[in-house]
Amino acid sequence: MKDNQLLIKAKEFAIEILNLCKTIKSPITNQLSRGGTSIGANIHEANYAHSKADFIAKLEIALKECYETEYWLELLKETNCISDELYKDFQQKSGQIRRLLIASCTTAKKK
User: Fold this and answer.
1) pTM score of the predicted model
2) How far apart are CA 25 and CA 104, in angstroms?
3) How far is CA 99 from CA 25, 29, 42, 104, in A?
4) In this structure, are residues 43 and 7 in contact, taking their beta carbons and an 8 Å threshold?
5) Under CATH, which architecture does the 5-110 domain have?
6) Assuming Cys at both sites, which of 52, 72, 91, 109 could form a disulfide with 32, CB separation 3.0 to 4.6 Å?
């Protein structure tokens, strides 16, 4: 599991989200921190799935959390709580995780 790039990237993303939430004042930081940390938690849980279907379901939940996190980040940008530059950085990272999750789900469904 230490070499799981998806899990590593999700954990790094979660840490960055938590650090961001410490620095801004917004009523949605609770939602952002939940979504941003849930991505990695679901990927981690998928590694211990009971079945292929359970594995896929956990990855799909992680994917949904990724989309939700992107929504909260967009709201923060549009309300000027974070800069465009910071938003783009988080979007790039979440986009990379999202694409890896989509590829992982697709591969798992083919097997």
Assistant:
1) 0.93
2) 35
3) 30, 24, 16, 9
4) yes
5) Up-down Bundle (1.20)
6) 72
